[in-house]
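Consider the tokenized backbone below.
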């Protein structure tokens, strides 16, 4: 098996930590991006180092604040200096919010978009020139079934941000194929266990307006929404399945990877809707004579 140099964002916990460890165990050189490696995430960074030693793998925590241009540029420059290349980018960093949409301030929406959407643009602008120069690479986007599946109430800012990120992934895909860069979109369902998404979710700054909902006609809705989501999740649902799916995607031969891979034990319908949307996209490209952009080109 070829050993790839992989950078994954948001690797301090959840899908990111699980995926970083799984990719390292699969034999790759993995840079686990996380912010504040000497501060709030010092314990997580140390845990990654310990995992590497105990398992004899190449897992390297790296300071990587996805909302900072300087931090992203420095991290990518360091990886390229160390390895002379980057083979795979895994866009995983994200943050969730929970509460009535109206009660979140515009600044809160902007901050959520910064983490979930703009972060991918920072990473792409820093890393893609290196991939394009080599004429080969893989970009993996960790999306969400919420972009086209069932959308329970009070998660609007997160749902909107993930939909924007998914849309960006789709657009980037066809703009990278002629550079020899492949795209894979992973679509996890609502895993309520095994990640910190729900536990660490943001809340509305306008608490008074939030109370107008939660103490008014929407009283009990937050609890019902969360309880309902948890009930839809099978007892054997394992967040590690997302990491396993990414490992499988990475090891597939160039040009054979599926455009989307759904990992959704709750089966909220996203796979059906995405299937239609992706088919319509492919038909459009064929109709305008750009069907070659649907598959990555072999360069050189």
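A designed sequence for it:
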């Amino acid at each position: 098996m070829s050993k790839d140099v992989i950078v994954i964002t948001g690797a301090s916990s959840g899908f990111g930590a699980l995926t970083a460890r799984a990719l390292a165990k699969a034999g790759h050189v993995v840079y686990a991006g996380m912010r504040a490696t000497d501060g709030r995430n010092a314990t997580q960074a140390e845990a990654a180092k310990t995992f590497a030693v105990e398992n004899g793998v190449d897992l390297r925590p790296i300071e990587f604040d996805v909302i900072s241009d300087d931090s992203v540029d420095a991290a990518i420059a360091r990886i390229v200096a160390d390895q002379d290349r980057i083979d795979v980018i895994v866009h995983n960093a994200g943050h969730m919010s929970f509460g009535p949409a109206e009660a979140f301030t515009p600044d809160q929406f902007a901050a959520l978009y910064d983490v979930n959407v703009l972060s991918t643009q920072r990473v792409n602008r820093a890393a893609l020139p290196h991939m394009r120069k080599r004429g080969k690479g893989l970009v993996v986007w960790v999306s969400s079934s919420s972009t086209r599946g069932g959308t329970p109430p009070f998660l609007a800012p997160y749902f909107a941000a993930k939909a924007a990120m998914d849309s960006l992934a789709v657009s980037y895909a066809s703009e990278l194929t002629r550079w020899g860069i492949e795209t894979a979109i992973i679509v996890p369902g609502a895993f309520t266990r095994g990640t910190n998404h729900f536990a660490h979710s943001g809340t509305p700054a306008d608490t008074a307006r939030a109370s107008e909902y939660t103490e008014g006609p929407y009283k009990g809705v937050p609890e019902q929404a969360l309880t309902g989501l948890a009930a839809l999740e099978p007892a054997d649902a394992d967040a590690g399945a997302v990491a396993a799916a990414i490992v499988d995607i990475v090891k597939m031969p160039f040009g054979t990877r599926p455009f989307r891979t759904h990992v959704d034990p709750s089966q909220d319908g996203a796979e059906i809707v995405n299937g239609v949307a992706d088919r319509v996209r492919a038909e459009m490209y064929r109709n305008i004579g750009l069907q070659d952009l649907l598959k990555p080109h072999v360069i050189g």
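The chain has a mean pLDDT of 93.
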